[in-house]
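Objective 1.3, modelling of assemblies. Example input:
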Amino acid sequence: MIRKLALMAAAIAASYAATLAQATSNLHLIPRPQEITAGAGHFQWTSHTPILTSRSFKNIAELIATQGQPVKVLGEKNNPAVAGAVRILPADARLVPDYNGYLLKVNPSGVAIYAHNAAGAISAAQTLLQLRLIQPDTNFIPAVTITDKPRFGHRGVMLDVSRTFYPVAYIKRFLDLMWLYKMNTFHWHLTDGAGWRLEIKQFPELTKTAAWRYGNTWKDWAATGHRYAREGDPNAYGGYYSQDQAREIVAYAAKRGIAVIPEIEMPGHSEEVLAVYPQLSCSGIPYKNSEYCLGNDQTFDFLEKVLTEVMAIFPSPYIHIGGDEANKSAWKTCPKCQQRIKSENLRDVDELQSYAIRRMERFLKAHHRHLLGWDEILEGGLAPDATVMSWRGETGGIAAAKAGHDVIMTPGAYCYFDHYQADPATQPEAQGGYVPLEKVYSYNPVPATLSASEAKHILGVQANIWTELIPHAAHLEYMTYPRLIALSEVAWSDTARKNFEDFKARLQSHYLLLQRLNVNYFRPSYTVTIVPQINYQSKQTTVTFTSEQYRPAIRYTMDGSTPTAASTLYTGPFTFSGPALISAAVFRDSLAQGTPSRLEADFHKAVGKSVHYHLPYSKNYPAQKESTLTNGYRGGVSYGDGQWQGFESHDMDVTVDMGSSQPLNDVSLNFMQLTGVGIYLPATVTIAVSQDGTDFRTLEQQQNDIPDNIPALTFRKFTFQLKGQQARYIRIQAQNAQKGFLFADEIIVH
Ligand code: ACM
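Predicted structure (C-alpha cells):
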C-alpha cells in the first residue's frame, strides 16, 4: 500500500515536471540558428538515455554523454529509430544542404542529429547541450527541428597567457565555455614580454627564466622594473605549459572541434627571450631590446628551431608569428641589420621586417604550414601567402583582402574584450577603449567596401583578450561573458538573422546557463545610453534611450535634476528644441539603479560653423573630422565614440568662424583625461577673439586644476564668460604639456 502511494506520488511529480517544462520550454538559442521550428512536447533526458552513433561520430557521441550515458556504435545499415535514444547519423544533401551544417530533430520519442562531417555534428551537439542548459528543467528538452550552418569558418578567441598565466585546468574550462557558443578556434598567445609559456627543449632558459618574473600581476611586474626570476624562486610568478600539457590541450580542443593556433611573437614583444638569449638582440645586452636582431642569422636559426618544436606539438595549418608593434629603431643603427638591408637590397627597416616575415613564411611553407600575423606584417610588403589578422581597425584587413590575401577580422573597437564594457567609473581598471555588448553585437566582419570575391577572403572574426589588467580567471570570465555570446552570433549567424532586441531577449536565458556553470559573468549594465539625433534644418534634437537591461523602465528629466520614480517614463524616442540637460536612469521597484546618465543637448550658436585647424587633429582619432567641434554632438565616456577628437603630441589650436560678427556671452569646451592610455587635460586653455580673422585679442587663459596622476576617467569643462563682447572669430589654444593626447568634443558658444 505504501509502495503504491509512493509510486503514485512519483508519477504525479513526473507528470507535473513535464507539464511545467512544457509550459516554459525555451528555444532561445545563441547563436541564432538558420531555421528553427518548435514541435510539441518534450524529450525526457536521463542518465540512461542511449547515444547511438555511426562510427565516424563516436567522439561526438561521447561529448553528448555528459552523465556517462551508454554510447553504442550503429551498424552501417538499417538503423531504425530506437525510442528514447539520441542518434547521430550521416546526412545527405537533401537533409542538410550545407556541408558544414546540421539537422537536429527533437521529438518526445527521440533525438536525431544529421551531419556530413564532424564539424556539423559537433555544432549539433553544441546546440543540443545548450538547449538543455537553458531549460527550467534540464531533463526536459523541448521538441524542435533545427537546420543550421555557420556564416564563417573562423570563429576565434585569442587568450594572452603571457601577461597572466592560466593553468591547463583553466584552459580546459575556457575551451568548454567557448565551445558552448560554437567558437571553433583558440588562438593561444603563448609568448610575450611578460613571460614565455611553452616548453622548448632546445632552449631551456625560455622556461627556466623567461617564464618567471617578479610581480604577480602585470602591473606589479611593470612597476618593479620588468625583471625575470628563476623557476623555483619563492618570489617568482609565472609558469609554462610542458609540451605534453600543450598536446593535452590540443587533443582536448580537437575532440570539441576547436583548432588551436599557437602564436610565437616576433620580431617585437620579445623582451623575455632577449633577457635570456641577449645575443639575439641588436645590443647583445639583456633587458635592453624587445626586438630580435634581424641582421643576425642566429636569430633565424633560433626561431626555426623553436617553430620546429611548435609544429611538432600543434597540427594547426596556421602558425601565428605575431608581427605587431615592433619598435624598429634599434635596427636603424645596428651594423648587422644595416648590412642585411644592403645585402638584400632593402629600402628601410619596414622592408627589413618584411624580409624577416617572408623568410619565416618560406620556412613554414616548407613544412606545409601557413603564416598568420597581425596587420603590421603588411608594412614593407606582405609575404606572398600570408593571412592577416586585422586589429588596428579594418584598414589592414581591407588592404590584404583586396590584394587577394585571407583575413581574420578582429578590430579593437568591436573585438577587444580587455576594453571597458560599461562606464569606466563603475568598472575595474581596463584598457581604455569602450566595447559594450551592443557594440560587439553590431559588428559585421565583411566591410561594405569589399566586392563579393574580395569578401570571400574574410575567413571570420575573433575576440582578443589581452590580460595585462585581467589578473585571474574570475576576472577573465567577467571580461569575456556575455560579450563572447554576442560575438558568437556575429561569427555564426547571417546578418539577416541578427537583431539586437531579439538577441537581448534570448540572452536572458543564457544568464541562467552562465549561473548553472558558475561563470563570473558581467551582469548587464543599468547604464542608460542616450543617443541624440540632431536635425540641422529644424534645429531640433530627437533622443533615444537604450540599455543592456531587458525591457527596462527608464525615467528621465530634461532640466538636469535627478530622475525619481515620479519622473517621466520613457516610452520611445522624443523630439525637442532648445537646450536641455537630460538625465535618465533605469528604475526597479521605484528605485533608480546606478548613477543616472546625462546628456547636454544644445543647438548652440556655433553648431554647423566652420573650424580652422592651425595644428592638425590626430589622424588616428579624427572623430567627425572638421565638423566634430561644432556638430552639436557631445562625446560620451569613450574617446573612441566618434565625437572625441584627438590632438597628438602637440597643442590644440583652432579658430571657429561664427559667420558674422555678433555678441558672445560664453564659450565652453570639455576635455577628457585617461592617463593609462596617455590622454591628459590641457595645462592651460586660452581664448582669443577677432573681427577679421587676423587680429586676435587674447581675453583669458585658464589653468587646469586637476592632477595628471589619477588613473580614473576624468572630464574638465573650461568656460569663458565673454559678457556680450562682439566678435566673428573665436580662437582656442589648449596646451599639450605632456605631449600625449588631448581630446575635445565640442566648442559650445552662446
Ligand atoms: C595587438 O593588439 N597588439 C595585436
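The chain has 19 helices and 35 strands.
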